[in-house]
Structure formats: C-alpha cells, structure tokens
Amino acid sequence: MGTIDISNKEFNTLSHLIYEESGINIHIGKMELLKSKIAKRMRSTKISSSRDYLNYLMNNKAEVIEFIDTVTTNHSFFFRENASIQKMVQALSLANAQSTPKTFKIWCAASSTGDEPYSVAVQMIEASLQFKMLATDISHSVLNTAMRGVYSQERVRNVPVAILHKYFQKGLGKSAGLIRVKKEIMRHIDFQKFNLITDPIPDEKFDVILCRNVMIYFDEPTTEKVVNRLYNALKIGGFFIIGQAESLMNLKHHFKAVKNTPSTFQK
Ligand SMILES: C[S@@+](CC[C@H](N)C(=O)[O-])C[C@H]1O[C@@H](n2cnc3c(N)ncnc32)[C@H](O)[C@@H]1O
User: Fold this and answer.
1) pLDDT of 253-262, one tens digit each?
2) What is each CA distance from 8 to 15, 27, 36, 63, 211, in whole angstroms?
3) Ligand 1 contact, 25 CB (< 6 A)
4) Is 181 touching ligand 1 by the criterion CB < 6 Å?
C-alpha cells in the first residue's frame, strides 16, 4: 500500500463531507490525523491507492458512515466529570420527595461506549429513582461495545468500590481482567444510533439530557444548532448537562444556568 498523499483540495472536500455528515470540524492542522484514518479504511476496504479510496468514499454512502465512525473520538470512562451527575440525581430525588414519585426520562445524547449512561443508571438506582434511558451515538461500533457492556478494569477506576461490587461482575478465566455491567442495569437503557446534526429529534420530551464532550468537536454555529435542538426535546424545568470543557457562552439559547452546579442548565 503506497503512502497516503492527499492534496489541499482533497482535504477540503473531505473535511466538508465530515462537517456536513457529523458536525465535526476538522481543520488543516489535522491533516496527518485524517491521513491515518484514510489509511485505516484503506486497509479495511483493501483499496491500495488513496485516490481510488477517496473516489470510492465520495460515491458510497455506506463507506461515508464507516469513515465517520473512524474519525470520531470516542474516549470515555465511568464516573467521568461526576459532580454534575451527582447534583442531577440529588435534584431528581428532591423533586420526587416534593410530589408523586415518577419515572424520569433521561437521554444520553453522545453516549459513546456506554460508560456514561451506565454511570448515570447505577446512581439513579442507588437513589431508588425510577427511570428510562435513551442512549445514542452516531457511531455503530461504540454502540455495539455499549450493548456488550464489557470493559477493562482501567475504565472503571473512578467507580466507588461498593457500587463496583453491586452492579458489575468480574470476568473469570479467559475474561480475567475484564468487568461486565450486570443485566439488571442494562435493561434500563435503550441504545440507538442517532446523529445530533441530521436526525429528527425524538417526539417524546425528557427530564434530563446529557450531551457531554462532543460539542468540543463542533464549531459555534453547529453547537448552537445542537443546543437548541436539544432544548426542544426537554420538558419545562428539565436539565441539560454538558461537558466541563464546553460552554454555552456566545451562543443564542434559552437555558438558565443552574446555580452551584457545574455544567448544568435548566429549561
Ligand atoms: C468523546 S465521546 C464522549 C462520550 C461521553 N459523552 C463522555 O463524556 O464520556 C464523543 C462521542 O460523540 C459521538 N459523536 C460525534 N459526532 C456526533 C454526532 N454528530 N451525533 C451523535 N454523536 C456524535 C462520537 O461518536 C463519540 O462517541
């Protein structure tokens, strides 16, 4: 397989395609990264020239999906940035204590390999709260990992030991070193493919939407569009939780920041 050589024009066509399909903003400084992703897909498709691969990509919708899957950053781990989740669980417990207990609807809108939705689920169960969760991502490969629910020990290093013992099973024999989320947690979560940019927002309204550590890959107009789309999917009073490195500053939106609660907004 020859070295990957793409012109600036080809780079621009590719980054435009990625932007249109996923909202992810790839600038020229990411040329080497993009080349490595092309090389990866060339190996999988057994196409030996980068020019032939780019032609194939531009004329094949299924390959566009595979390519976007390769380009997305899926890094995640259990109990990541957990302060905002803890505060959210406390707020829902308080709401339940003040009126008739209800089944909360939660949407984890860029759920990657499942670490985040499972982290929320175990804390909702610990707080004796009833809930249903939708967990979505653009990438089918991370959704497959999420639905298997099997992880390396490294990924659960932030999980409190008591919770680890209660809701996870240690792998034995060939699975030694791995850990599995128990089935009783999995049944609360419906994993589905969903593109934040192009798919229609679900008709149902949610009490909580988490959209964390994905908007950092979007530019401001795309972030604003996603934030307002998700606003429409929340119930009045519902919570919107973003990542610590993300902000709604400089965007036109109708959310109110929740006092003393990191990265959390309310409709
Ligand atoms: C860095 S992970 C964040 C996972 C998790 N929310 C967390 O905070 O640990 C970002 C995820 O966003 C997904 N993603 C990227 N663009 C997307 C889009 N347009 N629609 C839905 N998901 C997207 C990626 O596939 C990836 O799994």
Assistant:
1) 999 999 999 9
2) 10, 11, 16, 21, 33
3) no
4) no
